[in-house]
Amino acid sequence: METADLFRALGNERRLQILGWLRDPTIHFPPQRDGDLIEDGVCGQFIADKLGVNASTLSEHMRVLQASGLVTAKRIKQWTFYRRNDQRISEIASIVGSI
Question: Which candidate, 28, 52, 38, places its Cα nearest to that of 82?
Answer without folding.
Answer: 38
